[in-house]
Amino acid sequence: MIALLLALGSSLAYGCADFLGGLGARKAHVLRTVMVAAPASLTVELLLWPVLGASFSTGALTWGAASGVASAAAFALLYRTLAIGPMNVLSPITALVSAVLPVGVGLLQGEHLGIAGLLGLPLALIAVVLVSAGHGAGSARPSRTALLLALGAGAAIALQLVFLHQAPSDSGVAPLIIGRAVSSAVTLAAAGVMFRRLGTEKPAYAVSATAGVLDSVANLLFLLAARSGDLAVVAVITALYPAGTVLLARGVLAERVHRGQLVGLGTAAVAVSLLALT
User: Fold this and answer.
1) Do the Cβ atoms of 40 and 154 come closer than 8 Å?
2) Which residue, 40, 39, 21, is CA-closest to 79?
3) Cα separation, 226 vs 234, whole angstroms
């Protein structure tokens, strides 16, 4: 139950971070937003170091760095995917892949689910697709390139989660610090190379920094959840993060929540209840 609650918290934090990051990217180039969010995120993890401890063993360094590379790849692939579109088709594909791969890894590593879990897991995967799909999903046919990018983005997100899970359980927040440092360095290097193409608009500093803080909180909660529960369950609950984004868009921007997304939210609630029984 503790792992489930931590995973739900991680999902909510990821959804809020994505929402704020999207708002920030509306004002300035997305890389300018990340140039603010990344240092803020790293600062939070450094502040957690004295509180939760960090052991920079070889395993923590290796898996942390791998998660950082995967995180940077996920960022690049995801935004390229959404830029090509259609978002309401590609976003569910990305979310589904990001959930399925860690579930497969967890089951291959010997995790076992009870009857409730075997029912809740596929329901949760269905909920991921429904919640992340917008109005008219399937009305436009994506190109082969867009589909490959969506699959790649989902795989990169999944690998980031799997790599964090593989880090030694006694390493504290070391994998998060290393991962964030690596992903920040890669992203900032890309921003430096593309500096002339970033435009002159200033980023929304407060919004961007808050997105970075929430992303760190989400990573921490996922790491704690994965250390105290099954990866198969934790990953699929975390992948419900579009629900938080959808609800915030409804409450803050007055965006319409479509019927399929409402069904997805209800399905998610049932799935979480069944997984809690597991």
Assistant:
1) no
2) 21
3) 6
